[in-house]
Write a structure and sequence with these properties.
Elements lengths: L13 H7 L2 H4 L3 H17 L5 H19 L12 H13 L12 H37 L4 E6 L2 E7 H26 L1 E2 L15 H8 L3 E2 L3 H6 L2 H27 L7 E2 L18 H24 L14 H24 L1 E2 L1 H8 L6 H10 L4 H17 L9 H5 L9 H4 L2 H6 L9 H24 L1
Parallel strand pairs: 3-4
Antiparallel strand pairs: 1-2, 5-6
Helix pairs in contact: 3-4, 3-6, 3-8, 4-5, 6-7, 6-12, 6-19, 7-10, 7-19, 10-11, 10-12, 11-12, 14-15
Length: 465
């Protein structure tokens, strides 16, 4: 007999039981479900809704069930549909009829939202921890390579000289915003919904604030219908996860390009590469490619929940059961990708000589020639045209700007002097770009120092929490 079966004259078919059951994925909420039930039962006892002795018996039984879960002694049943009903059935089996009082003043609708919010809150902290680890690795590499000159690109064409440290700090800033987004999303996850019932609350004098305090929630939900019907916190987490994956994918795409023979900017460690079943010379960047591919998977998780929710009137519908699998998949995927990407990054071998060699080609100091002319009093638009003609001349004569003689320079403008060669030195080109946020080694050093200070503040905040 189902725990809700009083209204029914016959049981559901086995096919319906299997179709309806969510235990094969929501089992992972067992800890949150039990802790939520303990808080609920303790509150029922304090409020006199059940006796203190009954509350104590229920809480003790739940604690024993939690221990059995942790020790792998529990077998769950699809016949009980979900994690909530399985645990309630186990409780009744363990402590008898008093176990049936646990669900007083509660619905599975507010119960599942509670479990999901508690679980999401924990996962957000885990993902932030993984991002902190990645950020620390980026700072270490950026500091190490603050003087490593490489070409910067726009449109995948060589554009201007930068440093590898500066390039890596660009990703540091992306992942910094990811941490900030997750921290901000916690405000909308950290809401205690229990007490909302199925949609209209309950007539029992529940102390919702006491339950919130025991479970570590900052606030309680303000509207019972919204509390059980909303899944925007799920959508928001998956949105944050999708943006994290986008940043990882962009980084992976660059590493894949950089590891080709055409670039040779990096070499993947053997432990994060694979070979070919037919071509013995191959060393493939499989890990980076898989992360790039799994990004689409997390996007799909987000779209799945958005699509499920888009047509649902208030309040609860069984459609909402379909939020768990994409949520859990998105969580698992972003965590595994962050973990393995950080490991891959630690083992990467960068090739500064090849970066400098490529930076010496492609006229990436052309803007600096134009800036040189501007400092000599030529309007920028005229300087831009002069340097464009210089570049065209170099292309026709198979030269780079550094190889032109002073006489060749002066054919395009009389203002060129010997000091033009100092102005277009790649080292000087980079070092002069020392504004805050620029690629100059001095600017990168300041950015790295600020990054360390910010990370320390983030870590101390989580340590205190």
């Amino acid at each position: 007999m189902k725990l809700w079966g009083g209204r029914f004259e016959k049981g559901t078919s086995q096919d319906v039981d299997e179709f309806h059951s969510s235990i094969h994925f929501d089992y992972r909420l067992y800890r949150q479900d039990i802790l939520g039930s303990i808080a609920h039962a303790a509150m029922l006892g304090k409020q006199g809704i059940i006796s203190p002795g009954e509350a104590q018996t229920i809480c003790k039984g739940l604690e024993e069930i939690l221990k059995d879960f942790e020790e792998g002694k529990i077998e769950l049943s699809a016949a009980h549909e979900d994690i909530h009903m399985n645990i309630e059935a186990l409780l009744i089996e363990k402590i008898g009829q008093v176990g049936k009082k646990l669900h007083t003043g509660r619905s599975r609708n507010d119960q599942i939202v509670l479990d999901t919010r508690m679980y999401t809150r924990e996962i957000i902290h885990e993902v932030i921890g993984l991002l902190i680890g990645l950020e620390e690795q980026l700072l270490e590499l950026a500091d190490k390579h603050k003087d490593t000159i490489m070409p910067g690109y726009t449109h995948l064409q060589k554009a201007q000289p930068v440093t590898l440290g500066h390039h890596l700090m660009a990703y540091f800033e992306m992942f910094r915003r990811d941490i900030q987004r997750l921290e901000d999303s916690l405000k909308r996850v950290d809401i205690m919904p229990l007490g909302s019932g199925a949609l209209a609350g309950t007539t029992y004098p529940l102390d919702r604030q006491a339950v919130a305090r025991q479970l570590g929630f900052s606030v309680i939900s303000r509207n019972s219908m919204d509390a059980v019907a909303a899944r925007d916190f799920v959508v928001e987490f998956l949105s944050c996860a999708s943006i994290i994956m986008m940043h990882l994918s962009r980084f992976c795409e660059e590493l894949i390009l950089w590891s080709t023979d055409e670039f040779r900017f990096v070499e993947m460690d053997d432990s994060y590469s694979s070979g070919s079943s037919i071509m013995p010379q191959k060393k493939n960047p499989d890990v980076a490619e898989l992360i790039r591919g799994k990004t689409g998977r997390v996007y799909g998780d987000l779209i799945s929940v958005l699509t499920t929710m888009k047509g649902l009137p208030l309040a609860y519908h069984s459609d909402m059961q379909e939020d768990k699998e994409p949520l859990f998949d998105g969580m698992d995927t972003v965590k595994s990708c962050l973990s393995i990407f950080t490991g891959m990054l630690k083992t990467l071998k960068f090739c500064p000589e090849n970066m400098l060699k490529q930076a010496s080609r492609g006229f990436i100091n052309a803007t600096d020639v134009a800036d040189y002319l501007v400092l000599k009093g030529i309007p920028f638009r005229d300087a831009h045209y002069i340097v464009g003609r210089l570049v065209l001349y170099c292309i026709h004569n198979d030269k780079v700007l550094d190889e032109l003689t002073l006489d060749e320079y002066r054919e395009f403008s009389e203002v060129f002097q010997q000091d033009v060669y100092e102005a277009i030195s790649l080292k000087n080109c980079v070092e002069r770009r020392n504004l805050p946020g620029g690629p100059a080694p001095s600017a990168v050093t300041k950015a790295v120092d600020e990054g360390h200070a910010w990370l320390q503040e983030i870590k101390s905040r989580y340590k205190q929490a």
